[in-house]
Amino acid sequence: MGVNNLKLGIPKGSLEKATIELFGKSGWKISVNGRSYFPDIDDPEISCSMCRAQEMSRYVENGTLDCGLTGKDWIMENDSQVTVAADLVYSKVSKNPARWVLAVPKESPYQRPEDLAGRKIATELVNFTKRYFAERHIPVKVEFSWGATEAKVGAGLADAIVEVTETGSTIRAHGLKIIHELLQTNTQFIVNNDVWEKDSWKREKIENLILLLKGALRADRMVGLKMNVPEANMEKMVSILPCLQAPTIASLYHTDWYSVEVIVEQAKVRNLIPQLIKFGATGIIEYPLYKVI
């Protein structure tokens, strides 16, 4: 291990696969060897360690790790003093932040947090939930849940739960209803405060990492479009083309046609292509992107 070495934390568990895939798209190959907690990475200036997202901010705060990826929720749960260098929203289910919500039985009379005064709440996010209700002067008993939190209410072990969700489908499937949102959370790239403020080499390395991670995330939502457009329809065509700045346009050899290339959001393509065809576009090609910086 060289003098210049960045100690990077990779979250083990639900974020593990998505994180490794994101680094792969960004240019760093991370290989997990069986049950090892020290994955290989194809960068001699980085050493990786794996730990649960729930614990990541503690290890970054105390300097065991220089930086790592974890949820905003677990930083708040641990009340960790770390530098948040970047927000990184990525998920198998959605591209939106997850939510910690208060849920109760579908047929219960509870409609708002105040209705749970004197009641028992089960959650994995114990410290944050205690602070949340205490700040609103609502007396509740908060108990730690090791898992299967949605089942706690049905089993009579709690009156309500605070649980993380992206779509709410699992909560509804357990006969519960959401009555309040406590927190929106997403993945954050966190850095030890001393590293961020005092180590210029590590800070630059981290900033370069973040630049490419964000570029890969941005590219995941976008595609490139290429097409041929007749000169007579060029102005109308350009007026409907979304793009990062302006379309790239080049004349086709010895014709009154042009080649047009743009970068657009993938979600817009299905509505955009029929419009392009109406304006005479031909040879339309859609292609994936790896990074958009």
Automatic annotation (TrEMBL):
Where the record annotates domain Histidine biosynthesis HisG C-terminal, the positions are 219-290
- Give a Gene Ontology cellular component term annotated to this protein: cytoplasm
Q: What is its EC number?
A: 2.4.2.17
Query: InterPro entries, from UniProt?
Result: ATP-PRT_HisG_long, ATP_PRibTrfase_cat, ATP_PRibTrfase_CS, ATP_PRibTrfase_HisG, HisG_C, N-reg_PII-like_a/b, N-reg_PII/ATP_PRibTrfase_C
> What is the enzyme's class at the highest EC level?
transferase
Which UniProt keywords are given for this protein, alphabetically ordered?
Amino-acid biosynthesis, ATP-binding, Cytoplasm, Glycosyltransferase, Histidine biosynthesis, Magnesium, Metal-binding, Nucleotide-binding, Transferase
Its pathway is:
Amino-acid biosynthesis; L-histidine biosynthesis; L-histidine from 5-phospho-alpha-D-ribose 1-diphosphate: step 1/9
Q: How is its activity regulated?
A: Feedback inhibited by histidine.
Q: Which cofactor does it need?
A: Mg(2+)
Per the record, the major location class is cytoplasm
Q: Which reaction does it catalyse?
A: 1-(5-phospho-beta-D-ribosyl)-ATP + diphosphate = 5-phospho-alpha-D-ribose 1-diphosphate + ATP
Q: Which GO terms describe its biological process?
A: L-histidine biosynthetic process
Domain ATP phosphoribosyltransferase catalytic per the UniProt entry, residue ranges: 52-214
- Compartment(s) of residence: Cytoplasm
Q: Which GO terms describe its molecular function?
A: ATP binding; ATP phosphoribosyltransferase activity; magnesium ion binding
**What PANTHER family does the record tag this protein with?**
ATP PHOSPHORIBOSYLTRANSFERASE, ATP PHOSPHORIBOSYLTRANSFERASE ATP-PRTASE
The record's comment on protein family reads: Belongs to the ATP phosphoribosyltransferase family. Long subfamily.
What role does this protein play?
Catalyzes the condensation of ATP and 5-phosphoribose 1-diphosphate to form N'-(5'-phosphoribosyl)-ATP (PR-ATP). Has a crucial role in the pathway because the rate of histidine biosynthesis seems to be controlled primarily by regulation of HisG enzymatic activity.
- Entry protein name: ATP phosphoribosyltransferase
